[in-house]
Amino acid sequence: MARVVLGVSGGIAAYKAVEVLRLLTEAGHAVRVIPTRSALKFVGAATFAALSGEPVTADAFDDAHEVPHVRLGQTADLVVVAPATADLLSRAVAGRADDLLAATLLTARCPVVYAPAMHTEMWEHPATVANVRVLRERGAVVLDPDVGPLAKGDVGPGRLPSPESIVSVALAALAGASRGTDLAGRRVVVSAGGTREYLDPVRFLGNRSSGRQGYALARTAAARGAEVTLVSANAALPDPAGVKVVRVVSADDLRRAVLDASNDADAVVMAAAVADFRPAVRASSKLKKSDADPAPVALVRNPDVLAELSAAKPVGQVVVGFAAETDDVLANGREKLARKGCDLLVVNEVGEGLAFDVEDNAAVVLGADGSETDVPRGSKDALAHAVWDLVVARL
Ligand code: CTP
Questions:
Q1: Greatest pairwise CA separation for the chain in angstroms
Q2: What does the alpha-carbon distance between residue 309 and residue 331 come to, in Å, rounded to a whole number?
Q3: Does 342 lie in the same domain as 310?
Q4: How far apart are the two ends of the chain, measured CA to CA in Å?
Q5: Do residues 141 and 282 share a domain?
């Protein structure tokens, strides 16, 4: 159980902080909510107090004998500010201590995650752009807001990312706290999910990959400071906050999107399950069962994206593949590493109840340098962090 401070500043999205609070407490953490005075105009202190079971005040002078303006920051394991208004970001940059939240930000030495929400004009103003850059340079995680409808009918970047995605980045930041932002200034590309190869407009050959491991890689890289492009094939998962998501369907789409994004990337991780074959023809209308006997489906080979990336990779880029194996896991993994030519291969044992569509994962990571790293069964975030540790060591 970690001690989490949830800062809430005064924007219309403050009501969504209630959901962030609920998800953090459900994850087993002790949450102390610190609203600003203006946040309390949107959501009452009683709501936060009842849900957190902790006192709620915006004022540094309440309970002054407990010195809350320094103690809360000093003892926090994680600070999440959602929503973070333009004003809050500016006070954080300036190092103000004019209310309890600002004072807490000034004393905190743990990971700090800001989820900004504001009108597009404010988000794009050079003052805010500069503030976000400074906070990131100081090691904070500042999520990019979502694009969508804002208050009063405006549409544009400025929407608070979903509570689920804020909490998943926050928890990844907590898990990666000891690593800091060791991927800051790095660009990484992650592919996730499973490709679909259509036979006709409604039927496809697909696979069981849910995309969870790839999404964990994307969000943990973002939490460690990387600029992340996630090429997502048919995953039904919420976009990780602060990550650029490119949606693809087939292996061919995925190949183009990954090659496009990986030109100037420092690392590329191919966690997607890419179909090795596709139907030789894709019927333009739905196949009918009245079409006499079922015709055998002729398949042709898809390009191997991982092998192509490895063969053409720029100097210094680290390429990581995944291997899903049901038998002779390590021997097949070693052979695959050599065949694909990547720097690291994460070897998973798959089958009923293993790896696919489950919350946890275990793996052995094989290195082209002969290294072998065992990652014991744990969360997909934990495996993701272990992969990034090995990538960082090779950058
Ligand atoms: N991969 C790829 N392009 C393909 C197939 C797979 O880039 N057409 C990548 C996957 O993203 C993964 C790795 O290759 O990182 C291993 O995929 P896997 O399906 O385990 O290997 P295969 O190449 O299919 O080898 P085999 O059929 O021998 O298991």
A1: 85
A2: 23
A3: yes
A4: 33
A5: no
Q: Check if the beta carbon of residue 43 is closer than 8 Å to that of residue 15.
A: yes
Q: Measured between alpha carbons, how far is 168 from 301 in angstroms, rounded to an integer?
A: 37
- Phi/psi for 350 (5° steps) reads -115, 165
Rg (CA), the chain: 23
pLDDT tens, residue by residue, 22-79:
999 999 999 999 999 999 999 999 999 999 999 999 998 888 878 888 999 999 999 9
**Which pLDDT belongs to residue 141?**
86
The answer to the question of residue 181 being in a domain is no
Under 8 Å between Cβ of 232 and 257: no
- Residue 128 pLDDT exceeds 70: yes
Q: Which residue from 31, 48, 36 is spatially nearest to 8, judged by alpha carbons?
A: 36
Sign of the Cα torsion 222, 183, 265, 378 reads negative
- Copy the structure tokens of residue 111: 């990971």
Ligand 1: which atom is nearest the Cα of residue 276? 8
Structure-token match 């292996």, residue found: 251
Place of tokens 């994004």: 261
Asked if the peptide bond before residue 111 counts as cis, ω within 30 degrees of 0, the response is no
Is 207 assigned a catalytic role? yes
103 and 237 assigned to the same domain: no
CA–centroid distance, 205 to ligand 1, in Å, is 16
Q: In angstroms, what is the span from residue 273 Cα to ligand 1's centroid?
A: 7
* Ligand 1 contacts CB of residue 268 (under 6 A): no
Q: For 61-74, what is each residue's pLDDT tens digit?
A: 888 878 888 999 99
Q: Report whether residue 254 contacts ligand 1, using a CB cutoff of 6 Å.
A: no
Distance CA 221, CA 189 (A): 10
Per cent of the chain over pLDDT 70 is 97
Instruction: Please indicate, yes or no, whether residues 13 and 139 belong to a single structural domain of this protein.
Output: yes
- 286 and 358 belong to one structural domain: yes
